Amino acid sequence: MKEEEIRPVKIFDEYLRLAKEDTERYFGAEEREYSDCPACKTKGSLAFEKHGFFYETCPNCFSLFVNPRPVESAFVKYYTESPSSKYWASTFYKETSKARREKLWKPKAKLICNTLGRYDASQHSIIDIGGGFGLFAEEIRELTTKAPIVIEPGPHLADVCREKLIPVIEKFLEQVGIDDLPFGPKAFVSFELFEHLHNPAAFLEKLKTLMESGDLFIFTTLSGTGVDIQVLWEESKSVTPPHHLNFLNPRSIEILMARLGLEVLEITTPGKLDIDILVNNHSLIKDRFWQTFIAKATEAEKEQWQVMISESGWSSHMMVVCRKP
Ligand SMILES: [Zn+2]
After folding, report:
1. pTM for this structure?
2. Separation of alpha carbons 294 and 162, rounded Å
3. Which of 70, 86, 272, 284 lies in disulfide reach of 30, CB 3.0 to 4.6 Å?
4. How far is CA 75 from the centre of its chain?
């Protein structure tokens, strides 16, 4: 898979341009709150400033996170009405949905299906938190017997799911109650949501109240110790406010889950794009080794490295499987 297939550079750069304008408009004058590392609660130290947001790194667990962060209400306003959010939901989605379905959602549905099988959870009800356009739900329902359910607070997106005959709970997770959910064992999933969360620990605490003993939570997010993010750092297009606030990593996820009393079953980095992202951003690389590697490595060598990066836990795309004990 290539980055261009799922994030065409012209459309993605226009989105980033709009987002940059929006950061000033929606967050410039907003009050900001200080906090410690979202994983281990150690005090962070300044890494860099980007578009008016300060990113810190944790000296203990190496998480990368925005601190201070604007109050939550500013994000709600941003996600519901900003031009860049609208662009993402309309133009970006339309132009890329076909490729993303094939390249991202079909393989992801297979991956989740296999993962559920590994933990005797094939009969669990799947609940997709922040299910958006319902692409994952559409794909996973082809592979499972129980109909998946989507939790999606956006009215427009909830309508899109309903049109696809996907059951929707049109609420923020904070407002969801046990009665909204099906009876019996459940597997909650969320994709590329965790890095956006204003308060990851609060999100997990809330989710825990909806889980019964033995229920699973499987999620994907960005790992801040992944190769392309480490190499490109503040120049990384993944490290972009106001969207991405939390970059945990396989080690810091362990710490966070232990703190919250969730049992980690596995943490993997199935990402496939690290090296391709470096190729596409080669002019921004400052490290000599990576400059040389990207300029001179053969395609076969690049592929070899990507496999090694993913398998050893150092890709920037991470998957976590945990269970309520
Ligand atoms: Zn930490």
Report:
1. 0.94
2. 45
3. 70
4. 16
CA angle (210, 131, 280) in 5-degree steps:
125
Residues at Cβ < 5 Å from ligand 1 ion: 37, 39-40, 42, 58, 60-61, 63
Q: How far is the CA of 253 from the centre of ligand 1 (A)?
A: 9
Q: Give strand pairing partners of 222.
A: 317
Residue with tokens 């993303």: 100
CATH numbers and ranges of domains, the chain: 3-323 (3.40.50.150)
Residue in the block written with tokens 């994030």 = 7
With beta carbons less than 8 A apart as the criterion, state whether 226 and 318 touch: yes
